[in-house]
Amino acid sequence: MMEIKNNIGRRSFLKLSATAGLAVMANNAFAASPFLKPYVVDNPLKSYPNRDWEKVYRDMFHVDS
Fold first, then answer.
1. Domain residues for 51?
2. Fewest beta carbons less than 10 Å away: which of 5, 12, 13, 31?
3. In a domain, 50, yes or no
């Protein structure tokens, strides 16, 4: 049998494995991008959350200012 000997150091192995991991993660991240579409809001003021608590908070400390 023929013995195959690869001379790869620890640092080279870590660099290659990190690069391969990043390539796999980047591929997965960009694979979903064609399916992502922006959310369209017709009237942002109509769908804005209720913020009445801010008025109560400001009135509570109005005396101190």
1. 10-60
2. 5
3. yes
For residue range 3-60, list pLDDT tens digits in order. 666 788 889 899 999 999 999 888 877 777 777 788 888 887 787 777 788 888 888 8
Residue 17 resides in a domain:
yes
In a domain? residue 20: yes
Q: What is the pLDDT of residue 55?
A: 84
In whole angstroms, give the CA distance from residue 14 to residue 17. 5
Specify the number of domains making up the chain.
1
DSSP helix/strand/coil, 42: coil
